[in-house]
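User: Please fill in residues for this 200-position structure.
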């Protein structure tokens, strides 16, 4: 229960609630054919996929088909971070370990950040966003002992900000992958790569 409350607080602090920020993308005409849930799921998974493709030179790769609706009703982007965990574990300071894990944190947070940018809704109760925060916390705690929940939030916040910057920079590519996911529901890594490469 303590961990659940911590994750909800962390998700709320990082992603906030509903926003009317101008960063929310104006709706494209084709989006009117889809439900809010379909759009949110497509952009969430596209955010993950785009960051994996961005970090391919770091050894990251998509390992299976990307879908906005799997058997559990959520989306899925199968991917591998290569040997980043082993590399990070080799450092002897908290900061260097977390910095080495930054690309992995960026991929994990990019889904929620893309969803929030498109929908304007960062509700902390969102299952996908909460799951992503849980994964980041678990990965960080496997490498670093934090003195408190506040210390952990402060230590991880810069990586969330970096993920937000990546989402902004890669937005046309995220939109291209999301559009393909909306049209087809499930796409292959090759299709994701083609959409990523062709987007400008």
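Assistant: Residues filled in for all 200 positions:
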């Amino acid at each position: 229960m303590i961990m659940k409350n911590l994750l909800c607080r962390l998700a709320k602090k990082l992603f906030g609630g509903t926003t009317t920020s101008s960063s929310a993308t104006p709706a494209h005409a084709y989006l009117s054919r889809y439900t809010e849930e379909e759009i949110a799921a497509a952009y969430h998974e596209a955010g993950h996929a785009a960051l994996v493709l961005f970090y391919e030179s770091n050894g990251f790769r998509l390992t299976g088909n990307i879908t906005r609706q799997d058997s559990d009703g959520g989306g899925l982007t199968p991917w591998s971070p290569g040997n980043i965990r082993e590399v990070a574990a080799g450092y002897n300071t908290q900061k260097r370990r977390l910095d080495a894990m930054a690309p992995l944190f960026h991929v994990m947070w990019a889904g929620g950040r893309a969803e929030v940018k498109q929908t304007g809704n960062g509700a902390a109760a969102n299952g996908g966003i909460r799951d992503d925060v849980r994964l980041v916390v678990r990965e960080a705690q496997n490498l670093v002992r934090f003195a408190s929940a506040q210390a952990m939030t402060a230590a991880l916040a810069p990586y969330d900000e970096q993920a937000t910057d990546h989402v902004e920079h890669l937005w046309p590519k995220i939109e291209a992958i999301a559009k393909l996911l909306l049209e087809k529901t499930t796409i292959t890594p090759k299709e994701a790569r083609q959409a990523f490469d062709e987007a400008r």
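For context: Residues 50 and 174 are 6 Å apart (CA to CA).
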